Amino acid sequence: MGQLNTKDLLVQVMDSSSFLLRPWTVDEYYQMAKTGILQPDEKVELIAGQIIRNMTPQGSFHAAAITRTNRLLNQPVQPRFLVRSQLPIQLDNRSEPEPDLALVKSDPLDYDDRHPKAEDVYLIIEIADSTLKTDLTLKKQVYAEAKIPDYWVLDLAKRQLYVYRQPTEEGYQQEQILSERQSIAPLFFPDFQVKVGEMLKPMPVSENDG
């Protein structure tokens, strides 16, 4: 049996019941960026007190889905809300994620003096390919605990939308999965219908369909 490397040993230690990770605060997170511990080009988020690095480059499939969804949301319903893409939302002192898309309350200064807080959020949308497991577990729980009222996860591979509502400390009490043929409206804007399929890459039309 070969000698374990540092990474393997660290995993073993972290799995032990006596080991606890020290959670970071939002203030400490920003201090690390200010002092250069976190580099400006690092793709990181503070989730439940832990700094999580996104190691997967954003592919065109993911980026295009964000663009499509952003365009759908930026229709003539404003200024009822602002659409923010991959920008910080301060949920509490331990979590400041940067969701792919968020509908937040309109602000006269466009949040120039602060990031939106949990109570400013109408809807959070995560576009999921390689991040699906995290979006449906860790992030879902963090958003529920922060009382985010409406949370959607667009599954690019299965071409479906997970919708979570009625947040509690234990998690979301209402869950549903919509196919690409279905439509849904944000919880706070029931007159604003969004087709799931329009957030996804168009499927090629077969000769039989023509």
Automatic annotation (TrEMBL):
Keywords: Endonuclease, Hydrolase, Nuclease. The keyword Signal does not apply. InterPro entries: Nuclease_put_TT1808 (IPR012296), Restrct_endonuc-II-like (IPR011335), Uma2 (IPR008538). GO terms for molecular function: endonuclease activity. Pfam families: Uma2. It comes from the Bacteria. Residues 26-196 form the Putative restriction endonuclease domain. This is Uma2 family endonuclease. It comes from Woronichinia naegeliana WA131.
